[in-house]
Amino acid sequence: MTGSPGLTDEQRRSWDDKGYVVLADWAPASVRQAMIDRIIELARALDGGEERTDLLVSPENLLADAPTPEGRLSKIFRVMRSEDVFREFATDARLLAVLADVLGADIDCFLSQFIFKQPGALGQPWHQDEWYFRMDPPTQVGVWLACTDATPDNGPLWVVPGSHREGVHEEVVNDPREGANLGYVEIQGVDTSAEEQMLMTAGDVLIFDSHLRHRSTDNVSDGMRAAMVYHYSPASTTIGHDLTFNQDWVPVLREGAPVPVDPTPIPIDWGG
Predict the structure, then answer these.
(1) How far apart are CA 251 and CA 234, in angstroms?
(2) DSSP code at position 150
(3) Using one digit for the tens of pLDDT, what is the confidence trace for 7-34?
(4) How far is it, in rounded angstroms, from Cα 13 to Cα 27?
(5) Are 74 and 45 in contact, with CB atoms under 8 Å apart?
(6) Which of 79, 134, 175, 257 has the most crowded CB, counting CB atoms within 10 A?
(7) Which residues pair with 111 in a beta bridge?
């Protein structure tokens, strides 16, 4: 990928030692705003009855009475393939060069989700993405784009540096809080004293290992915290369970070269 350098030496040290790297000021305001505008259009169209069998919508349980469709949502999954602005970012040559440094020359994007965190929304407890994925090889990579600032008050991520070296923690409980969103679990009995708060400026990107323990806090601010998140995997990956309805496996890199993506929507296979 000529002209598209991967990780710098400093970023490689952060990846190896901490399990994550921050790419500062990565996405321009025009891209971030286009993502927000398009996701709001989708939320309102779906609320108005438009049928999109390729998208999966997750409601924000505590905000069921919010006045706007986007205000009532937590996430919209599977937006990468059919929506231009999300697909273009996911297949950006600079980003793929970074991912190739970590995952190799053959990569798929298997999960894409726009995350709303409206005022009053709960955070997500300590978890590892790999607990949900159960894949072989076991290392997948998350790409978390801050579409708005992640501040101390609006529910930023927290991580435990170095926890990517741990196996999958099986000591979890379902999130017991009233109004907790579907699928939230919390890791029990582990030391989180080394946690770090990931305050990010809009446009920053966090790249992180799927074993990295992380959480988010509640949004106690007056504004939305918005993020676009992708997950990538080696193309040779196999899946150890059938709960893949929110996934859409899209080849993005083969032998180090970008792969054109067919934007035709693919309906969700609820059978896994």
Answers:
(1) 10
(2) B
(3) 999 999 999 999 999 999 999 999 999 9
(4) 23
(5) no
(6) 79
(7) 231
